[in-house]
Write a structure and sequence with these properties.
Number of strands: 9
Strand content: under 5%
Oligomer: single chain
Radius of gyration: 33 Å
Low-confidence stretches: 1-7, 43-47
Amino acid sequence: MTSTQPGPPPRIPQVWGKIPSKNKNFTGRTDLLERLYQGLGGRVTAVLPHALHGLGGVGKTQMAVEYAHRYQSNYDLVWWIPADQPVLVRSSLASLAPYLGLPSASVSGVEEAANAVLEALRRGEPYTDWLLIFDNADEPEELTDILPQGPGHVLITSRNHRWASIVDAVPIDVFTRQESVEFLARRVPKGITPEDADRLAEELGDLPLALEQAGALHTETGITVSEYLRLLTQRTSQLLSQGRPSEYPASMTAAWALSVASLEEKLPEALDLLRYCAFFGPEPIPRDAFNRVIPGLSPKLSQLIADPIRLGRAIGELNRFALARLDVPARTIQVHRLIQALIRDELPADEQERLRHEVHLLLAEYTPVDPADAANWNTYLNALGHLGPSRIALCREPKVRNFAINMVRFLYASADFESAKNFARSFIEEWSSVSGSDHENVLEMRVELGDLLRELGQYDEAVTSNLQTLQAAEKALGPDHRIALRALRGRAADLRASGDFWQAHEIDEETLRRFELTLGKEDWPTWRAVNSVALDYGLKSDYLNARTLLEGVIREIRASEPSPNPASYLNIYTGLARTVRLGGDYSEACDLGEDAYAYGVEFLGPDHAWTLRTGKDLSIAWRRAGDYDRALELAEEIHQRYVRTLGLDHPDTLAAAICLSNIQRTVSQFQEALALADDTVRRYPRVYVTEHPYNHACAGNLAILRRITGDPEIARKINEDALAGLEPKLGRDHHYSLTVAINLASDLAALGEMESAYRLSSGSFRRLSALLGENHPTTLGAAANTVACLRALGRADEAAELFAATEERYRRTLSLDHPDARVFLEGRRLDADFDPPPI
């Protein structure tokens, strides 16, 4: 008996993102689609990406759209990625993150979200059957590193034939004649004879985009084929008689000209609107960009925008004449790049300049004023694709230049540092050439560039760039101008990156004084300046003053209820938790750190750069407090994320590696800790100058591992070199120097040089008592080690007296159940390690 029940319905992708709507008039190309299917969907294992390549207007994008719709049942995820600008590729990938169960770009940043998406696709989690389409990819080199790997499929459309040497390529040519005739029969609903369709296709060179124009014009105007061909011949003759070289087929240009002429006759303002659209990028244009009448727009455009009914009709006519594609749900307008180019080429230079300038004004008005507010990031993403193609860098209008600066700040805030850096450099170059290198806009963008270079860990370049910016800003704008003061803060940060903590502190104090005079005490620039001064205090081992400053600024921020700026607030809040830990109050540091980390996860997302820094510091606080299991788990997680997103040599990755190595050593994973510490210490000089204190202090961590794994002589040499490197920069009476000295004393004790070990240990104990206080855990560790030395030297009475005093201090501070206190009570020596704070 056979079943009469139908089979299961076709599978529908669970994620169907930004795929253009299917062209109901798509015709032919069955063999090419089958070739694609066999190359991609017909295989069950991962395959090379496939590329559709050919000249403009032959229908590459429509082929990709048709494939996505026709074979969607093969996939659980299908995603469309505009690929003509590298910056758009990452933002489009990032927008896929929430569909994969990952934090969105609005909370984790574009760079982090894009990298997380690539990793999820590689693993095939949660989907193994995925299709990503990269539309209009230009140079292969720009995409090689970001094409996803894994079990899914990649389809590329491009005019660049060089893709054929890299991926499996499918060349796309014009229609066959049969396909042209079939297409016109579908496109013209009232019917067209095969003979007329053949004549039309012959004259239009079987170019799909030209046929689309002809079909739309016939549908909208009822023009006969004979009349169309007569006009087409006339237009083509005019074009050829002008003798102007063109990269576009004459038939395409003539067909476009006929459509434009008919559109102008039917609704002139629709043609005006199309000309504006030609000066945006080829990506979807937000309809809201034409939402408000603003100064600087032409009377015609102002009147059109002011009349929403007429504006809606104009947009509809562009769609009906096949001169633009509308996405009604997304509220966007998109014009084919070939049509955009043809429109621009037909306009005189002064008209091009006017239209381009008004587009700049529209974009500037479209974006909100606060790029640091994550609620505004989607709007900035919508504008991003038009930043380069509209040639924003050429505009001298102050409002437009402020828009460009805000776009760079948005990219910085969303953690797309490389794109932000590239845009900043292009703006600086263009603005300098027309306005001079000392113009206020140029100097402000140079400050942004300096911040980006530091965020990327490119400290050498940041030092050179920012020093020049500071000198120029003070000369051109005055030393108390907000841009000069930001550059001065940057100068202090550069000095910290060079290891000059004292000079950085002097500059930060002066900067704070000037910010308070010019802006007052309750403003974000001032609060950031306070945070920098507190950081300087901490780097000088003055944790009490650092804590006092940060407690005050946190109270001011909470009391004033400022506009949203969660990243800056988290940075300051994390600084307070770190300072409390460094001051020895581990339990309080855990409480603060847990709250700060929860705040970061809620308002910025778990993968945001500032949240990761907070998580690293929380792991350190848990380790110091003796909560080793949680400390290890979080340290491993944070380090993995840093390696994936920033690479092995970024300063934050190195700091996370030191954090992980320290907890690994603490829980007796000695070989893992040794391998990681050794690798990290080798990498540090690639980021910081050789004499930077972090290089030497981190080497002290490696020395601990060398000693406890059986090489006390090597440990001694490492610590002696580290101490010799620290003292010229910091002096002996510094937390970092004394940390290394404590461990060097343990090396000497392990080598049997007990008298030398005692002198160094007891001397460090005295210095730490004066620097950090007798109850600080590092001081107690030095006291515990001094007790061990006294016992080994047979000085029992002195050892007993110091033991009793140290035991009491442990009881009153960490408690006798703390792991450090237990080591002390057992008569063993304590090691003192180092975790580098951010610069």
